[in-house]
Amino acid sequence: MAKTEFKSESKRLLDLMINSIYTHKEIFLREIISNASDAIDKLCFISLTDDKVGMDRSDFKITLRADKENRTLIITDNGIGMDKDDLENNLGTIASSGSYKFKNEMEEKQDDIDIIGQFGVGFYSAFMVAKKITVNTKKYGCDTAYCWQSSGADGYTIDEISKDSFGTDIILEIKDNTDDENYDEFLEQYRIQSLVKKYSDYIRYPIEMDMTKSRIKEETKDSEKPEYENYTETETLNSMVPIWQRRKQDVEQEEYDNFYKEKFMSMDKPLRTIVTSVEGVVTYKALLFIPSSAPYDYYTKEYKKGLQLYSSGVLIMENCEELLPEHFRFVRGIVDSADLSLNISREMLQHDRHLLTIAQNIEKKIKNELNAMLTNNREDYEKFFTAFGRQIKYGVVADYGMHKEGLQNLLMFYSSTEKQLVTLDEYVDRMKEEQKFIYFATGENAAAIDTLPQTELIRSKGFEILYCTEDVDEFTMQTLMQYNEKKFCSATNDDLGIDNDSESDENKTENDALITFVKETLGDKVAEVTASKKLVSHPVCLTAKGGISFEMEKYFNAVQPNSGMKAQRVLELNMNHSAVKSMAALIETDIEKAKKYAEVLYCQAILIAGFPLENPSEYTDLVCSLM
Ligand code: ADP
């Protein structure tokens, strides 16, 4: 038969495929196998009501054959097959669903070859690896079989052939290797096996291949130098029933654990397994895992969030980011929905209504699971929070606190009174009647915060303090602003909302004189000097005035060294402390010495606040001169 030209739009797509520079050429096998599986579905369905088909469900299969010598890869199915019209309509033009959408998208983005990777592009994708494609096919119910052949853009031929059984053989003549591309791999049995595992493991019919293997010759088994021989064995490459399609009560936790470890390459069992099956407006199954520890690259750019997306057992996306909110990016798992088309682009997915609904449900599921864990298994929850608490805090802070309502009750902080992680609910429940605020203090670690002078007054009242030891903690508090109508208050705030009983105004004039002296001595180093209301046993401390705290200053200067972000320093003096009293006395008798005292006390406050001294040797000289 004379060559028939492809319809113009098919031709363009074909050109793209043939000259594709796309790196994931391997997806062609998934596409061809999915077509085969669809064709079997159709015949299988007919066979339910039509005895003439003469086949059982168990007779249907897909067979792969790789022939290195002839450079062919053959994909055979005993499905419905195609007649001449089908061949014309299906393989001669891009009439069908996914490919058609692809075409439309292509109009908009002609130059962007890489978008190929984001589509399921169907039959034509085989041209990425094949220089010639032959389709031998016979449709169920027809007597004539046909051979469709094409070497690419110049068209195709259709001829009658003889073929005994129904179904289709797709014969791919694999391209020769080039300097840049290795096509031989698509003829290697182990490569093919792994591609089937990766993309088509859950195709519902067996995908069989004759595998050449090696074994010790029986007769040389006991000899010192055993000899080997090759033999062939037919293997089913796919596992067919995905674990998430099985009913939850039929699956042992151990099976889920093993699946998780294998699929997500983890050494540990998951902390929680979430299995859901939803039927309704959107129908889908999801199998989700909360890991028990953070992967080593979790808090780096390397880590890719997302769930694997399947459409009826066929992998359509390795990492579908749209399915997970950023604050739950640690969750691993799978979503399988027949409502999603195999041929869907990433851009289209983002606006897909089904996907949006699934994503919302999934977020709710995860939240419920975490809440249940917090209520029922504190130990596990603390393990979870140790691994991913930082993520939850980022979630609270992100998008100007948009998600804080849903996440705040999942937060935990180390408590000064309980000496362990506590939730905000627990804190608020324990608050004393006269306590106005939820107090928090920031520092490198718990031990450092334990000795912070600023916290003395809060502690002396028996109020609980939450410890902020991570960068994000203070931002979290600032974003939350309040919890259950109780406002947060930093220990370094100038106003702690506590009346200090020891405070009195009787020495006000003396105090004012001392404060003026210290401020004049220190000059621009401090914005203000005050008589402290919060110090009990320590002589001095540093607090921040205005919107920027010390922790924010440290944080911003670490991420952006010349940011110029500086908190306004207020030096608080404990007027009842002997060191401060000595300084006051020295103003009258030895003013130079009093100035040295002021410098030393300032440096101490700097050290306690966790800042480096501007000039450490000057400081030690100063101390020595006083000794
Ligand atoms: P899609 O699968 O998105 O419809 P394809 O380009 O992969 O697009 O395939 C086009 C059409 O060709 C299919 O819809 C199907 O009707 C037909 N087809 C492809 N492969 C086979 C096959 N192995 N058996 C029967 N029909 C097939």
Summarize the structure in short.
This protein has 19 helices and 22 strands.
Helix-strand layout with pairing:
Elements: H1 8-18, H2 27-49, E1 62-67, E2 72-77, H3 84-91, H4 97-108, E3 130-138, E4 145-150, E5 156-161, E6 167-174, H5 189-200, E7 207-216, E8 228-236, H6 253-263, E9 272-278, E10 284-290, E11 307-311, E12 314-320, E13 332-336, H7 346-350, H8 353-376, H9 378-401, H10 404-407, E14 412-415, E15 421-423, H11 424-430, E16 438-442, H12 446-450, H13 456-460, E17 465-468, H14 471-480, E18 482-483, E19 486-490, H15 508-522, E20 528-531, E21 540-545, H16 550-559, E22 568-573, H17 578-589, H18 591-608, H19 616-626
Parallel strand pairs: 1-7, 11-13, 16-17, 16-19, 20-22
Antiparallel strand pairs: 1-2, 2-6, 3-4, 3-6, 4-5, 7-8, 9-10, 10-13, 11-12, 14-15, 14-17, 18-19, 21-22
Helix pairs in contact: 2-5, 8-9, 9-14, 15-18, 17-18, 18-19
Residues 31, 35-36, 39, 77, 79-82, 90-91, 96-99, 122-123, 168, 343 line the site of adenosine-5'-diphosphate.
Could you characterize what this model shows?
The structure is a single chain. This protein is α+β, with helices and mostly antiparallel strands and 627 residues long. The longest helix is centred in the middle third of the chain and has 24 residues, at 353-376. Mean pLDDT is 87; it is low at 94-103 and 109-120. The chain binds adenosine-5'-diphosphate. Residues 31, 35-36, 39, 77, 79-82, 90-91, 96-99, 122-123, 168, 343 line the site of adenosine-5'-diphosphate (ADP).
